[in-house]
Design a protein that fits this description.
Order of helices and strands: HHEEEEEEEHEEEEEEEEE
CATH class of the largest domain: Mainly Beta
Strand order of the largest sheet: 1-2-3-7-6-5
Number of strands: 16
Helix content: under 10%
CATH topology of the largest domain: Thrombin, subunit H
Number of domains: 2
Number of helices: 3
Distance between the termini: 22 Å
Structural class: mainly beta
Shape: globular
Largest sheet: 6 strands, antiparallel, barrel
CATH architecture of the largest domain: Beta Barrel
């Protein structure tokens, strides 16, 4: 996992994929300038949408985002999406599902510039697990309409479709206030790390060199502006299938280790499980999230 951080000082202990705080909080470098001829020779791609920090949140140890389903209503209580391994109660064990557990956790809500504009508070953990995926969903005490009216921040929308290989993405960390830009390199049949196994994970191209504290960051498709995954782990030291060193396992059981490569968990599978009023209902048609 992209280790949860107790505080910014812990970043000094990060090695390998974990850069020192000055590097971790630095803005991504601008791409090298292209000549006019080079630009004209390239095929035209779909225009990329501007992606900023608006709607992202910083947790005490991780990143996250204020999210809505495609059919969520302004009167629905807001939802915060992060990782299961970022829970304040600790990482759920393999096979464990947390549902509808009271929580008063706080989240720092950011605007487009990455400035904190509000502290949001949870009423409960609606759902969390590290089985098949690595997600936590908190229900807030405020509705989307209240958040929009009071702070001018709209929620990010979860895409209800599987992400596309090769698509341009941005990983937006509210904890570090850093945006990583890369592409979806491919999908992993099974991603194993320690006791946990995740299904159909997103593998980034190498440019998304995420570090500790970026756990729970939304992965935004730059064409649609929608969230397609949630950042969660990377292979730090080249070990195979150990903590902080996930391995890829294909349909035939073959294991591949990619040191320095990072991963995310798809979020389209959440959408069918959310009913009216943003209630998590694991018995809804099409819902495949693990049950307690």
């Amino acid at each position: 996992m992209k280790k949860p951080l107790v505080g910014a000082l812990l970043a000094l202990l990060l090695t390998g994929a974990g850069a020192a705080p000055a590097l971790a909080s630095a803005p991504p470098q601008a791409p090298a300038a292209q000549t006019k001829a080079q630009t004209q020779a390239q095929p035209k791609a779909a225009a990329a949408l501007a992606v900023d920090y608006a709607g992202t949140v910083a947790l005490s140890n991780c990143s996250g985002s204020l999210v809505r389903m495609p059919n969520s209503q302004p009167s629905d209580p807001g939802l915060i999406l992060s990782n299961g391994h970022c829970l304040e109660s600790g990482m759920p064990g393999a096979g464990q599902v947390v549902k509808d557990v009271a929580s008063s956790r706080s989240f720092s809500l950011l605007n487009s510039a990455g400035t904190k504009v509000a502290t949001l508070r949870a009423s409960k953990i609606s759902y969390a697990t590290m089985t098949d995926t690595d997600i936590s969903i908190y229900q807030l005490t405020k509705t989307y309409a209240q958040i929009q009216s009071q702070y001018g921040i709209a929620a990010l929308t979860l895409n209800d479709a599987h992400p596309t290989q090769g698509s341009s993405i941005k990983v937006v960390s509210g904890y570090w206030k850093r945006i990583y830009s890369c592409n979806v390199d491919g999908f992993v049949y099974r991603l194993k790390e320690g006791e946990w196994t995740w299904k159909d994970s997103v593998r980034y191209t190498s440019a998304c060199n995420t570090i500790g504290g970026t756990s729970g960051s939304p992965v935004v498709d730059t064409t649609t502006g929608k969230v397609v995954a949630v950042n969660n782990t990377g292979n730090e030291s080249g070990q195979s299938c150990t903590l902080n060193n996930p391995c890829e396992v294909d349909q035939n059981g073959a294991v591949t280790v990619r040191q320095g490569i990072n991963y995310a968990q798809e979020t389209y599978t959440i959408v069918p499980c959310v009913g009216a009023g943003n209630v998590i209902d694991l018995n809804r048609p099409g819902c495949t999230l693990p049950k307690p």
